[in-house]
Each structure stands twice: as C-alpha cells, then as structure tokens.
Amino acid sequence: MNSWLRSFHPLLLCFLTVVALCTRVPRPGDNACWISSVSSCTECLKRGPQCAWCFKEDFLEGAASNYRCDLAENLLLKGCESEFLEQSETKVEVDATISSTQVSPQDISIQLRPGSQASVILAVKQLERYPVDLYYLVDVSASMQENLDHLKTVGVALSLQMTQHSSDLWVGFGSFVDKPVSPYINVHPSKINNPCSDYEIRCRPAHGFHHVLSMTGNMSEFTRVIKRQRISGNMDTPEGGLDAMLQAAVCHKAVGWRPEAKRLLLLMTDQPSHLALDSRLAGIVTPNDGLCHLENNIYTASTVMDHPSLSQLSDKLLENHIYSIFAIEKQQYQWYKELVRWLPGTYLGKLGLFQASNLTELVVGAYKELLSEVAVTVSLNDRASSRFWVSVSPLCPNGSTANQQSCSRVQPGQTVYFNITVGMHSCPDNGEDEDISLTVRPVGYNESSVIRIRSKCRCCCESTGHCHNSSQAFCEETGQEQRDPSLNLSCQSAGSDLMCSGRGTCECGRCVCDQSRLGTVYGKYCEKDDFSCPYFRGLICGGHGDCVLGECVCKNDWTGDSCECPASSTSCQSPDGLLCSGHGECVCGRCVCSDSRRSGSFCERCPVCQSTCQSNMNCVFCHAADGLSKREKSHCNKTCPTSVHYTDNGQIGDKWVQCMYVSNNNCRYPFQITTEAGQTELHIHTRAECRSSSRVGTFLSVCALTVLCGLVVVAVSRLLLLKRHRPPGGTADGVYNCTDKDLSYIPTTNEKTVTYRRDRPRDHPVEMNIQVPKMPINDPWH
Q1: What is the dotted CATH code of the domain comprising 29-89?
Q2: How far apart are CA 675 and CA 643, in angstroms?
Q3: Rounded Cα–Cα distance for residues 54 and 80 (Å)
C-alpha cells in the first residue's frame, strides 16, 4: 500500500496543487460582469447595475479590454481609482419649488441605467372639506319615466345633507339613451322624431348624449331643469351609458367641472350598457378617440365612433380626476358589479326604487366611502412599458401596508404615503439616451405627480478613447504596421528572450496579453497577473504589491513574501517611546513579547507579573551566578534591562527602588532600580553579605533545644497541678465514698411544683404536685 502511494505521489501532489489554486483564485467568469465579448463601456454597463468600466489609460496595460469591465470593488482593488470608474449611477432629484396641498412632491427626476432602479415617496393628504361637483347622467329611456319623476325633489334634499360634508355643492345634469342608428332605434320616419308615437305620447328623439345643465350652485335651477325633462325610447335592451360617461368626463368647458372640486359622476340606469365593438352591428368600426365632440350640447360623433373600451373610460376618468357612482336597480346589480372592477374610484349602489330619500343616502354614502379610500394609478405609455417597470406600495395611516395600491378608511387630515419604485429593463434599440415621463395620479384628486426618467445608456468616457478596445486604434493613430519586425523589440523586457514574457502577442510594438481562465495577465510585457502569487487576507500580495512572474513586488513601506509586513517599526512604538515597551521585538509590524506573561499591542500588560524587584531577579541571578568578578556580562542581556551597573554606593538617582536578592549559597545581594527619562537601569551592589552553613546549623540546634526544654517544663507543671487539686477521701482509682452523715442529707425523691394554665383564660390555674424518685447513689450507672 505504501509503495503504491509513493508511486503516485507526484501525480497526487500535482492534483492537490491544482485544486488548491482553483479554489483559492476567483475566476473572472464568476461574476456577471466579466465576459470575453465585452469590448466597450456601453456593453459592460448593459450587463447589470453592479458592473463598472475603468477608463484609466494605463489600467492593466496589455490586458484585453474586457478586463476593464468588472465589479466596482474588484476594479478598485486592481488599481483603478474611483474617478476613472464609469458605473450605474442612480440619481433622484425633487423639485421642491412647486407648492401643493394634497400631493407632494409633484415633480421628480430620476436617472437610471439598464438593470437599476430607484424609489421615491409620494405623500397624499386627505383634506377635511372639499367643494363637490356632482353631475347627474340619467338614462331617459321609456322604462325610466317613474324614476325621472323622483329626481325632481332630489336637488334640495341632497344639498341640505351634503352641507355636513362639503363646503360647497354644485350640480349638473345630462341625459342619454343610445346611438340613434339602426338597429338600436326604429328608423321609420314617424319613429325618429317621436319614438313613442304608437302610445300617443310625445317623447324626445333618441340621442347618445345630451348635456342639459352645466355646474351650478342654484338648486332651484336644477329642479326646474329636471321638471322639463321628457323620456325617449330605443329598440334594444342595453343603453349607451358608457359612451355618455366619457363625453361628460372630457368635455370640461361645457360641463363646467371646477378645478378645485371633488368631481362625482352619477350614472342612473335600469339596463346594462353597450361595450366596445358593439357598434359593429350598426356598421360603426372607428374606435373611440376619447375626445369631446359636443355641438350645441349634443354628442355629434355618436353615429360614427364606437363605444369606448373599459380601459379607455378608466383612463379618462382618472385623467380628469372623476369619481363615478353607479345607481343601479337590483335586477342589473350583478352585471354592473363585474363591470366596476375595471374602473378605479367607482362606487356601486343598489336601489329598489329611485326615490329621493334613497338616492340622497346613496350619494352621501358613496361620497364618504370614495373619499375614505386613497389610491394611486401610474400611467406609462406602451413604448416605455417594455423597457421600464413600476411598483407601488402604500403605507396607510394605521401603519399597515397593503398588497394593492390603496388604503381604506382614511380620515380627513390623515396622510397616506406611497413608495413608488421605478426600474429600467433595457435601453432603446438605437442605444441612445432617452427621456420619458410617467404620471402618478391619486384617484379622484385634482393634483398629480410627474416622474421624469432619463435613461442613461451611453458612457461619459466616450471622449477619452478608452471606452472601447483601442489596440487597433493605436496602430492606426501612429501609422505603424503590425507586421513591422522592428516593433517586436519593444515587446521584450530587458534581459529576457521571451516576447511579452511568453504570455502574449506583440501588436504594433505593444503587448496584448493572453486571457487566462485563472485570472488577468497584464503589464507592459505581460509580466504581471493576479493569480500566481501568495495571498494574504484574501488579497494577492496582501493588496500592497504587484505579482510579477510569480513573485510579489511590494510597494514602499511593505515587505514579506506576500507584502503582508510593514517595513517601518513605528507601529510597534509604545507611548513611552520604547519599542514594544522594552519587553519584545517588532515582527511584521506587530510586537512579539519576549516574556510569555506579557500581552497587549505593545507588551504593556502583565497581570501576573510581580513587583519590580522580583521581575529583575533573573537578571541579578545571571550576574551573581559566578560571583561579581565578570563585570557587564554580555550573555545576560536577554533577561536584563538595557543597562546594568555595579556600584558600592547607597542611594542612586532620584527615582529608585531598593531590593534584595538571596542566592543559593546564602549570599545577600542588594540592588537598586532607577528610572530616568523612560530608561530603566539596574545597579547591583558589590558588597554582598554571605553566611556560612556551620553558623546556621548551630543556630538551628540552639533553637531546637530551647523548644524541647519548654515542653518538659510544661509537662511537669501539669502533673503538679493535678496532684494538688485531688479531692479528700478519694481512693487511688478516683471513686468517691460517702459517709452515713452524708447519706442523711441526700433525699430519695425530688419534689417540684408545676403550674399549668387551662385553655380558657377565665379558668383558674391548677397546681399539680409531682414526685420524681432519685437513683440510689450506690447503684451503678448504666
């Protein structure tokens, strides 16, 4: 088994080396920015918002241009200063000069690059009392005759009740039936002017939309107009309500919508409505253009344009800040319930009969509910929607967030905040910068916010000439041919026979280095790389040098195999001016303490160190080991202060410590420690006092004899005291005998009186006499 391993040892070592190298060195392809086909700044930034391009002229000289594209932190580590970085910079600017009362800010500018995004906060405040514009849009087909009569008393009642919620109520009125073309109406000449001729009733001609009364605060005028209204008639069941709603929303001048008022559009009908494409039954194929077509208050384009789509109607209601209220009889309630899901800012009410009281309650309830829900919509044209995305997240006054774009039950005076995030997918096909804008509209509010987006697709470094691969451009600028043999000499370093260090090709007298899967090869002669030298703390050459042909070439003030050590020892200088506090040496910019008990950045801490005297005992021992005959012993320097002196004097210096060292041969060496200007000196006295061992032995013998004599005296004194205190008549064994006279005085019983108290305090205590016999004195004790 061992011989088999020995035979494969070289192969195994090679395999482990390759594995270690691959796991240690990050490959350029490990991040999304690096790709061999990237040759310009614009292509680099399209890789994502995390990518950056270095346009420094001599950056990684000789390396392919795609190495200029990398993560910003990697480019900085490779020597590209931040002022030479072109990267995805997102900017958000707010124009605070535009005042607003409900929506702020109202003008925002954002700069984006492909893959980047930016967020802004929009505040929408709910005011306490708004002016209100209410426009009645009523179906006047024959089935609405009774309901139309009930409207005659609604105006005054509604005005009185709305005064509790609005500072100023204005009302308007308009009517609709259907498109006045076949097959929606009877086109017989007698039926066109009077659809009710068969019933001998005078009716109005059918019409798509008729604006009757502009906004007014005169309720008497509103009632007078309602009383003059007459019904009309048509053929099919659905009506043209949505067509009339769009005209009422966009015809500002005719209807008289006030800019500062909350706008309510009330649609009253008892039938469903026609939708887009229904007009094809009448041969009308022109889509609705969403514009106002009123002449003499009559909708003139009703017979030539289709009904609007729900999305088109929704956009127009939002664009004109209009809340819509549908007052529907219960038979059609379910149909309109599905419809209003596509119309933001809409309230659906169910009424059994259009009585004045019911209709007033519906309008007031709808007004309160619509204003308590704050929502925003974002409009982005189709061309821009493919390159940008928008998300809206509200923060409601109660602190909750919602998945949808609205907050409910918002009270007057409260503010709803919307976090609006805009991101950019890609640049236009032509790669040019482009400016677009999107509008954020709170539903039903007459204020909105505009977000202007500048898409940054081109690089600012276009003028430097280093936004693209410039090797061929260099040849063209210098007028040199790539095949000129004399240019090859400039691709060889001094003392080398290899062209471009054997790791590149010479083009126009400049080395173009090979690309390696291990990392980047660069340098004037392709002599540098970022993978073949030792690493320190995850950085090649510790980040303090260049890797040249497999060895670290350290920058100034750094040394070591991986440039990990500062060349200067100033980092080891302690506050007292000493190197490592005088208790260590500076190794690689850090103090290595000579005493294992010491610690700290400067070996200044020693919790277990004893007194100053004891810390210098080893030094005195070293000098006194062979006596004091050899002065200034050089081999003791490791355990001694910087300066050791022999002296015969007493006190030395102003700051001194008196100590004593006793050697193994019972010699006493006084020594002193002085400190002057941060320097410690040791002064050993030459007058040592030594004592012989015989004198010590005699002293110990005398002490032992003295102790023994003391013990004998104590023992004799104890015996005498015992003999002196022995009782009279006692026997040798210590038994005491009593005489007859003595027995007469010893009672055989012991009388004792015990007093007990009863449980109840009112009872008298009872005395009991107890006799306890005593043991005869001569009986043995068991």
Answers
A1: 3.30.1680.10
A2: 11
A3: 6
Count Cα atoms within 13 angstroms, Cβ side, for 592: 5
Topology match between the domains 130-372 and 470-531: no
How many Cβ atoms sit within 10 Å of the Cβ of residue 503? 21
Q: What is the pLDDT of residues 424-450, one digit of tens each?
A: 888 777 767 778 888 898 888 888 899
Cα–Cα distance, 350 to 370 (Å, whole number): 16
Tokens at residue 313, please? 């109607």
What Å distances lie between residue 406 and 145, 318, 344, 440, 444, CA to CA? 39, 14, 10, 13, 12
CATH code assigned to 130-372: 3.40.50.410
Q: What's the pLDDT tens digit per position in 135-192?
A: 999 999 888 887 777 777 777 778 788 877 777 889 999 999 999 999 999 888 888 8
Give domain 470-531's CATH superfamily: Laminin (2.10.25.10)
Q: Which CATH number fits domain 621-690: 3.40.50.300, 1.20.1050.10, 3.40.50.2000, 4.10.1240.30?
A: 4.10.1240.30
Q: Is 255 in contact with 262 (CB distance < 8 Å)?
A: no
- At 145, give phi and psi (nearest 5°): -55, -50
Q: Which residue has the tokens 């270690």?
A: 20
Which pair of tokens denotes residue 329?
Answer: 């009889």
8 A C-beta contact, residue 158 and residue 266 = no
Backbone angles phi and psi of 523, in degrees to 5: 110, 160
CA distance 777 to 747: 10
Look up residue 429 and give its DSSP letter.
T
Rounded Cα–Cα distance for residues 748 and 736 (Å): 19
The residues with which 206 forms a beta bridge, in sequence order, are: none
CA–CA distance, 603 with 582 (Å, rounded to integer): 8
Half-sphere exposure in the Cβ direction for 720 (13 Å, CA): 6
Strands (E) in 480-607, as ranges, are 504-507, 510-513, 521-522, 528-529, 535-536, 539-540, 545-548, 551-554, 558-559, 565-566, 584-587, 590-593
To the question of domain 92-126+378-460 being in CATH 3.60.70.12, the answer is no
Instruction: Cite the DSSP H helix spans in 567-625.
Output: 612-615, 617-624
Q: Give the separation between CA 118 and CA 374, rounded to whole angstroms.
A: 23
d(CA 357, CA 230): 22
CB burial class (10 A; 0-12, 13-18, 19+) of residue 97? exposed
pTM of the predicted protein model: 0.52
User: Judging by DSSP bridges, how do beta strands 346-351 and 322-329 pair with one another?
Assistant: parallel
Structure tokens at 99: 């005042």
| Strand arrangement of the beta sheet that strand 521-522 belongs to | 521-522, 528-529, 545-548, 551-554
DSSP notation for 86-149: EE---EEEE-TTS--SSEE--EEEEEE-TT-EEEEEEEEE--S-EEEEEEEEEE-BGGGHHHHH
- Per-domain residue ranges of the chain: 29-89, 92-126+378-460, 130-372, 470-531, 621-690
Closest CA to 488 of 472, 511, 468, 471: 511
The residue written with tokens 């929408």 in the block is 124
Name the nearest CA neighbour of 210 among 177, 252, 182.
177
Q: Give the list of residues 6+ apart from residue 470 with CB closer than 8 angstroms, or none.
A: 65
Angle ∠(618,623,624) on CA atoms, nearest 5? 95
Q: What is the pLDDT of residues 471-506, one digit of tens each?
A: 555 565 555 555 566 667 788 888 888 889 888 888
| Location of structure tokens 């940054």 | 456
**HEC assignment per residue over 192-212:** HCCCCHHHCCCCCCCCCCEEE
Question: Using CA atoms, how far apart are residues 236 and 238, in angstroms rounded to an integer?
Answer: 6
d(CA 660, CA 29): 72
